[in-house]
Amino acid sequence: MRPAVVVFAVAVLAQWLLPLMGVWQHERVIREGAAVRVRCTSPDPYDPLRGRYLMVRPEETTLPKPEGMPEWGTVPVWATLVADADGLSRIESLSLVPAAGPSVVRLAAVVRTWDKDRDTVVVQWPIQRYYLNERLAPDADRLVAERWRTGARPVAEFRLLDGRAVLTDVLVDGVSIRDAVRPRAP
Amino acid sequence: MSHTEHRWLAEQLPGWEREGIVTAEGARRLRERYAVEPRAGLAQMIVGAIGALLIGTGLIAVLAYNWDDFPRWVRLALALGPLAASQAASAWVLRQNEAAKPWQREAAALVQTLAAGAAMALVSQIYNLPGQWTDLVFWWCVIAIPLAWVMGSQSVAIAYLVGIAVWTVAQAAERSNGWSWTDVADVRIWFPLLLAGILPLWPGPDLRGRPAPGSRLMLAAAALVGLFAVAAQASAGGRPDGEPQRAFFWLAMLSSVVVLLFPLDRDGIAEPLARKPQVLLGGIALVIMALIATYEAPARDLVTSVGFALPLGWCWLLLAAVGGFAAIAFRQGRFAVLAVAGLAVVPLLASPLSAADTSGWPVAIAYSLVLLGTAIALIALEFVGRQGAARIGATLITLLVILRMADADLSLLTKGLVFIVIGAGFLAFNTFISRRRVTAAGGVPT
Is the full-model pTM beyond 0.90? Predict the structure, then answer.
């Protein structure tokens, strides 16, 4: 077999492997993961390769520093979520030690160096972007802004499995934002 | 002799054979000695690349539309279907071996590259994955570059070079934030590795592969931009507290010298400057930085940056490359590029002589004088029969005078008169050089 054919075959394999690995991992989380909802903010930016999306920022981002947290750099932390009576989840505890369980999510954390006492961390959630059709995205953005002025917050719904989260929907007043802004059939 | 002259000779030989100026055997030997590099149908390749680019970007745009009404599996099929089709087309082209036309190779490789990127982007979109688009670009580059190797595709190679430069700049920018979420890659390791990814194509396993002029420009530009980004990241010194990047100035100068002095073979040296973009880009970047350093504050910053740069491993790696390339250039008699490269040595020599917090004026004045000396050397080399750059030397002198006049405390009338004299002198020198070259070439304009 010519070396060029071998290199080509490896490239073809890699070109399938990368997207399929993503499909397999995230399909499993969606199929088997626990459903979680958190309150969030959602402005509407643009990605040159993937189109329009609502930037999803869960509200809970500043928390007490977990035991053994390094002063510098971003480190993975494991957050245990607990659901309120209204079905919305919040972080109950943070740990640097990997934890397991249906309500544990892996986040990234960094110490708030601009704080005098440096006793809090800022966490970054693995749910950041909710991609929307370019026709719907501006309306979705407008809807979120309108509700925001009345004090209502959008809610991010995601599936959680083995610490990995896959964002499945953004809800406004309990309704999927896609349904809320999709033009009604006459 | 340059490639242009090889080509000219090849075009003349049949006529000379007919007229009996050379024998058939003599013509054969001349063809062997001054072989013409096959261009593989440049127009065909461009047409193939443009067609593929239109199809591919159209594909990405259609997929990025986010087909809201389709279920996930349909959208996945939309993403992966074009990839499968483009791979089948490439496999067919590859099976044709030498029978495949250059535009077919170019188009197949580029469409497959774009389809692979579209598939990754769409999967990322369907599952609402986090992360910057530049993270996708990294993986896109990695899975696309083998296509440039096996299909000999210039357009995929160019796309790869643009991609790795964009990714490297994004990583360096992320690091320079000082406070970053993502695991920022160490581009001091990754950029050289990624740049080496082009080696199986240029020079290739037989060491004879050469990029086309447009690809050379991209290669030189990607190398320069990437090295600047690495310099920015390296000068941050891995400090997470956002320490100002004070080593960057001199590291950027050394990076420009590495690009400027990159070794060439005999044919490459003989080519005109326009076909040596690494010399042009590296030289321009270096001269611009040197001109900036003729002012007091930047001169002080530049000398200070030497002290910050010398403890860095990346700086020593650059110095080693500069030393090696300079030795090769000296052996090859490339004195003009060596004269320009010498501009980066000034801050190193000035560093031990300048006490901390002293004025930058001595260095600024020294830079003006060294630039003047470099310009004179570029002119003089041409007059002593070496490969020089008289016009560039004259331009440099003109620029220096303009800069000094601009900040001089003189009346507008005086400045205006001086500019007129400089402009007239510059034009007269150009005319003189043109006439001299015509005479030297035996009446043929060069």
Answer: no
